[in-house]
Amino acid sequence: MEKTWLTALVVVLVFLAQYCFLPCLAMNVPNSTTDQSALLAFKSYITFDHPDHILATNWSSATSVCDWIGVSCGKRHYRVVALNLPNMGIGGTIPPHIGNLSFLSYFNITSNTFHGHLPSELARLHCLNVVDFGFNNFGGGVPSWFGNLPKLQYLRLENNRFTGSVPPSIGNISTLEYLNLKSNFLEGRVLEEIGHLPKLKTLRMAFNNLSGSLLKDLCVFLPKLEILALSWNEFDGQIPSTLGECRELQILSLSYNKFSGFIPKAIGNLTFLQILYLGGNIFKGEIPQELGSLHSLEMLGMESANVTGLIPSSIFNISSLKGLILYTNNLFGKSAKGNRQLYLPFSI
């Protein structure tokens, strides 16, 4: 689902950049020689997993930068518009020179071994639409200058070593549709700032030490939300019944936090919901009968959630249901031990 969305976005961005439809392309900026110098500086900071790595020989001043592996240029202005270097077996740090790639709209170095802090010079890349730095070893705080990128739609910093709190400036990125800060070392309260992103479709922040409660008006502020994944944090309070107003939700994962109170019946209004994961919290009362109305549901995880009473028979009538996890509760009724464990989405 998310890969398809990102692939389509890349195609559109490269097309637009080639024909100078992006407003930022009208800026008075240096020529393509500047891009070559910036990328050669980048290369000098790169460590390769093998001395004969293809980038070590392919990225050469003897050829046009537009012919280099992982580099895409606009056809009219011959400036670098995309760096696409995932899973390349490269590492090192990002030099400040990258901030000179004035036309860069797509920057993907996921699944490598880059480390260090992200240089503040990247804040000059006002054309950036996609930043994918997932699965590296970047550290320090999440830079506040991300909030100064006026066109950013996709930000993925998953599985790094970022620390501190989520900067409030993230709430300034009104264009943002995808935010993934999963599996870092972030802490503190966060959701108030995130509530200022009206185009946001995906919010992934699981496996951190974040805290606070869910905004009661979350669905008003984030009307397009499709994925809300906050598992394995320190969030608390009650899940607001207004969450049932996020009608586009497909994945709701709030497991292994400190949520309490009753599970809202209004969750049964989320007709597009495919995964509902609430295990490892301290709820009270029964599983709402209304969850049987989730006719698209494929996975229901509610293990160790302190729920009691009769398992709603309506849940077993959901034909799409592939996994049901209910163990370590005080439940009775059909399949009270939750043996339909076909898969468990710990990666959410």
Strand order of the largest sheet: 2-3-5-7-9-11-13-15-17-19-21-23
What's the order of the H and E elements?
HHEHEEEEEEEEEEEHEEHEEEEEEEEEE
What would CATH call the homologous superfamily of the domain at 1-151?
Ribonuclease Inhibitor
Uncertain regions spanning at least 5 consecutive residues: 14-23, 25-29, 338-344
Radius of gyration over all CA atoms, rounded: 23 Å
**Count of alpha and pi helical runs:** 5
Principal-axes geometry comes out as elongated
Mean pLDDT: 90
- The number of distinct β-strands equals 24
* End-to-end C-alpha gap: 13 Å
Q: Based on the structure given, which CATH architecture of the domain at 1-151 is correct?
A: Alpha-Beta Horseshoe
Query: Which quaternary structure do these chains form?
Result: single chain
Could you characterize what this model shows?
The protein has 348 residues and is an alpha/beta fold. It has a domain at 1-151: Leucine-rich repeat, LRR (right-handed beta-alpha superhelix), CATH 3.80.10. 13% of the residues lie in helices and 24% in strands. It is built from five helices and 24 strands. The chain has helices spanning 2-18, 32-45, 54-58, 191-194, 218-221, and strands spanning 46-48, 71-73, 80-84, 90-92, 106-108, 113-116, 130-132, 137-141, 154-156, 161-164, 178-180, 185-189, 202-204, 209-212, 227-229, 234-238, 251-253, 258-261, 275-277, 282-283, 299-301, 308-310, 323-325, 330-332. The strands form three sheets. A twelve-stranded mixed sheet has the order 2-3-5-7-9-11-13-15-17-19-21-23, with helices on one face. A ten-stranded mixed sheet has the order 1-4-6-8-10-12-14-16-18-20. Strand 2 and strand 3 (80-84) form a beta hairpin. The two termini are 13 Å apart. Residues 14-23, 25-29 and 338-344 have low confidence and may be disordered.
